Amino acid sequence: MELLVAEHEIKGQVFLPPKNKIKGGLIFCHGIPSGESSNRAQGYDQLSRIFYKKGLVTLFFNFRGTGESGGNFDLQNWVADLREIINYYFQEYGYTPLIITGFSGGAAVAVEAAAQDERVSAVALGSCPANFSFFFELYPPEGVYLWFKQMGLFRNPAELSSQDEWINRFSSLQPQDKIHLLSPRPTLIMHGESDDLVPLDHASTLYNLAGSGKRMVTFPRVGHRLRNSRKALRYLKTWVDEILDKQATFSW
Questions:
Q1: Which of 38, 52, 86, 98 is the most exposed place for a label (fewest CB within 10 A)?
Q2: Residue 3: what are its φ and ψ, rounded to 5°?
Q3: What ranges do the domains of the chain cover?
């Protein structure tokens, strides 16, 4: 394991298998915080250990404004963070296939970053919103901004955009507009049928807009936090095993 320190103080861990057992790489992207201060508390280190044991160089990190990372929470900046982490992975390791697995807001970020980066071999999306219009139907935009501010996710006031600009940047992330660019790479769309935050029909929207290589699976009686679902985790492990068994080199 080692600490990552990127340009904007992005910090995380790398779980590195023995070189003779490495089969590829996997990057986890966490969701938007709900009050928990650390991804370790959310169980991403345990998830990383599971896939590290499969022979994957497994990396999880805190997006800007969360956990031990600096900066301000901003979904567009999160896309930049993930791109930086992908570059770090290929500079330091470079094993393929590289799989990106994101949950909720982190899944939306994964679509945006992977759509423009052909080095990413496959993408798994858990509880991914097709867009963020639902979010502001649940919560007033000004209240969302204030909530995240009170949670301490704006850590560099000098670089903080105005409230209106921040809200526009938040809502401008539209996975439904970019998911087709993942084709023909394997794209797994997972969603809990009892998700009380991101409506289930967002999964269908993404699936219908995705190109070849797509797969969708829903889980009865499972809520928003798929990472806590044994059913979802078992399915994700099986899907990753399929990718590794093929040891495919994707061209698109």
A1: 38
A2: -95, 140
A3: 12-112+121-246
What is the CA 185 to chain-centroid distance, rounded?
A: 16
Q: How far apart are CA 26 and CA 57, in angstroms?
A: 6
pLDDT tens, residue by residue, 78-87? 999 999 999 9
Residue among 41, 72, 93 nearest 153 (CA): 72
What pLDDT is recorded for position 60?
94
Tokens of 204: 């269908």
Q: How far apart are CA 235 and CA 164, in angstroms?
A: 40
Q: What confidence tier does 35 reach under pLDDT thresholds 50, 70, 90?
A: low
Using CA of residue 213, residue 121, residue 67, residue 232, what is the dihedral sign? positive
Q: How confident is the model at residue 247 (pLDDT cuts 50, 70, 90)?
A: low
Identify the architecture of domain 12-112+121-246 in CATH.
Answer: 3-Layer(aba) Sandwich (3.40)
DSSP calls for 70-139: -SB--HHHHHHHHHHHHHHHHHHT--S-EEEEEETHHHHHHHHHHHT-TT--EEEEES--S-SHHHHHHS
**E strands within 162-234?**
187-192, 214-219
Helix, strand, coil abundance in the chain, percent, nearest 5? 40, 15, 40
**126 three-class SS:** strand
- Which pair of tokens denotes residue 104? 């909720």
Query: Where do we find the tokens 């769309």?
Result: 189
| φ, ψ dihedrals at 171, nearest 5° | -80, -10
